Amino acid sequence: MSPPKPFPILRLPFLAIEEVFKAMDPIEIINFSMISKRTKEIGKRMSFYSNYAIELYVHEMPEIRLHGTKDVVSSFYVMTSDKEMDGKIEEKEWGRYIIRKVFKYDPIDEWKQWFKYVMEIFRKQAIDVLTMTLTTFVDQNVSIIDFLKSNVKSVDRCSLYQRDEQINVDKHTAYLLDNVKINSELCYDAYINNDDFNPKIPKSLQELRIYNSKWIEYERLLEIDCKSVILKNNPISNKEWNVFVKKWRVMETNQNVEYLELD
């Protein structure tokens, strides 16, 4: 029995090509786009990419997660000191999820290059999720933030964490909040080491959650203007709280706030 003939996808009308692309998972689309300049240009022309979501994670290993129309693809970049493993790829399927591991000497650099290509193919300027543990790649935090500043117009939901209390990430936190635009949600779960910590807090968020908010005193609270505000471990006194509530009720301050929780 002779092998099947290659399917001439590029000879199809564009609408038919687009239907073929809709049946592909995001990795298949990216792999197709890498074949030639022509396939790359065709890959960038699809009209349904607005339904795709792109998420970035920097925890134990950097990750790019792509939510397609049917499948969710996660690409992990795993640091390796084994020369034989450098560049190797492992893929596993689990239901709707496709897990892709890429072994690299410099996972952050590879993660950046792969992300730029993903953004180009799917014609994205903003990303849906950024989740970052600031104590994982401390020496590269500034480089990562500068990269995001140059390549991402905005982030819809951002979560920042600190796993090692002994590592001071105050400056990195402030630098990220000064340079990355956050549209909808900010979750901040880190320890504060400096009394003068005073980062920019985005305005008009749908939700602001700060789990160690000792640095947010009364005057700073008056500046917060988000729809839902949750502040844990907060030092505001009962007297200040009562004054704030009175101002809030008569709409003298924080007019966008609909829900406020202090602990």
Concise account of the structure shown:
This is F-box domain-containing protein. The protein is α/β, with parallel strands linked by helices. It is built from 8 helices and 11 strands.
State the main characteristics.
263 residues; alpha/beta; 11-stranded mixed β-sheet; 11 strands; F-box_dom
Write the layout of secondary structure elements.
Blueprint: H1 14-22, H2 26-33, H3 37-43, E1 53-58, E2 62-67, E3 72-79, E4 89-94, E5 97-104, H4 107-121, E6 127-133, H5 141-151, E7 155-161, H6 170-179, E8 182-189, E9 207-210, H7 218-221, E10 228-231, H8 238-249, E11 259-262
Written description of the protein model:
The chain starts with 13 loop residues before the first helix and ends with a strand. The chain has a domain at 208-263. The chain has helices spanning 14-22, 26-33, 37-43, 107-121, 141-151, 170-179, 218-221, 238-249, and strands at residues 53-58, 62-67, 72-79, 89-94, 97-104, 127-133, 155-161, 182-189, 207-210, 228-231, 259-262. An eleven-stranded mixed β-sheet has the order 4-5-3-2-1-6-7-8-9-10-11, covered by helices on one side. Helix 5 packs parallel to helix 6. With 263 residues, it is an alpha/beta fold. Helix content is 29%, strand content 26%. The model has no long low-confidence stretch (mean pLDDT 87). It is elongated. The longest helix has 15 residues, at 107-121. The chain contains eight helices and eleven strands. A hairpin with a 4-residue loop joins strand 2 and strand 3.
Shape: elongated
Number of helices: 8
Strand content: 25-35%
Whole-number mean pLDDT: 87
Biggest sheet record: 11 strands, mixed
Organism: Caenorhabditis remanei
Protein name: F-box domain-containing protein
Pfam family, one: FBA_2
Domain F-box: 6-52
